[in-house]
Amino acid sequence: MRLRLYANPLHGISMTLTSHTALPRCLIRCLALGAAAGLTLAACAGAPPQPTADNDAALAASHWELTHWTGHSVPHGDNGEPVILNFAQENGKGRVSGRAGCNQFSAPYSIRATGQLTIVQAVTTRMACPGPAMQFEAAFLDQLQAVNQYKIDGQQMEMKTLDGQTLRFHAREKPGAAAQIKFIYVASQKVACSAGAMRTTCLQIRERKEDPWQLWYGNIQGFNFEPGIAYRLRILEEQVGNPPADASAIRWTLDMVVEQEVVKK
After folding, report:
1. Cβ 263 vs Cβ 229: under 8 Å
2. DSSP alpha helices (H): ranges in the chain?
3. Rama region for 27: left / alpha / beta (φ>0; ψ in -120 to 50; rest)
4. 114-121: long-range contacts at Cβ-Cβ below 8 A with a sequence spacing of 24 or more?
């Protein structure tokens, strides 16, 4: 690997990096930003930028579902769990969380300036998924650390990375501040049920292990049920104003898969 920093009287400090070995995203980010700002390599050895209270309201106003990533087959429900980002402020610091294709993840973020975004290394749950999903997740979480710029245009968001890749997202409805947090268990099998005149299958749910199973006739937004797996979920419950006559007055949205376990027959 060769790293060459040199001064240019017109453009300040420039950087040339030649390597046959992949570098960590945090080091690539630090070298690129450091060179642009005229920083020394010693400064690059420090910690990544810390999250600040600065926030773009549009960034935190929606859940963001990944819809396009050049060179990758993006999961969108029928070919795997959708990839969702949720930006929020916690104790004055930015945090992005969501699903990365298999596991739940969480990472600090900061907005350095208008349209300039830094996401640092994420922590994840440790559930096992099929090989392709795990490979996609690892690549996606690695790519998040290379995000440098973002732009929101209506319901669309585009992220640009330091290595020239583009990720596009679509805004999804975000539960309101009045949503209540609940924990529920979901049985490993659906059962036959009636929804009006229509026969269908329903989830079996309960709030405590000792409670009997009850039928849940509605959907849980963002939850992809797989037969043979028992779940414990953290959900957000909201009251729906003026629901249709054949719809529930309660809406459930998945907040986190707390546990999941394969149930042997």
Report:
1. yes
2. 25-37, 41-44, 57-60, 131-144
3. alpha
4. 115/149, 115/150, 115/151, 116/148, 116/149, 117/147, 117/148, 117/149, 117/150, 117/159, 118/29, 118/48, 118/49, 118/147, 118/148, 119/144, 119/145, 119/147, 120/26, 120/48, 120/49, 120/145, 121/26, 121/145
In eight-state DSSP terms, residue 52 is -
Give dist(CA 97, CA 23) in Å, integer.
Answer: 25
Distance, in Å, from the CA atom of 56 to the CA atom of 153, rounded to the nearest integer, reads 13
Q: Which CATH number fits domain 49-172: 1.20.200.10, 3.30.70.1350, 2.40.50.320, 2.40.128.270?
A: 2.40.128.270
Residue 37 to residue 159: CA distance in whole angstroms = 21
Regarding pTM above 0.85, the answer is no
**Best CA proximity match to 165, nearest among 261, 61, 74, 100:** 74
CA dist 150 and 116 (Å) reads: 6
**Domain limits, the chain:** 1-46, 49-172, 180-262
Tens of pLDDT along 59-93?
A: 888 889 899 998 888 876 555 567 889 898 888 88
CB contact set of 148 (below 8 Å; sequence gap of 6+): 29, 32, 116, 117, 118, 160, 161, 162
Q: Using the CB atoms, write b or e for 221-244: b if 16+ within 10 Å.
A: bbbeeeeeeebebebbbbeeeeee
Beta-strand relationship, 250-262 and 220-221? parallel
Report, as ranges of residue numbers, the positions in the chain whose pLDDT lies below 50: 1-23, 31-55
CA 61, CA 227: separation in Å to the nearest integer?
Answer: 33
Report how far residue 80's alpha carbon sits from residue 43's, in angstroms, rounded to the nearest whole number. 41
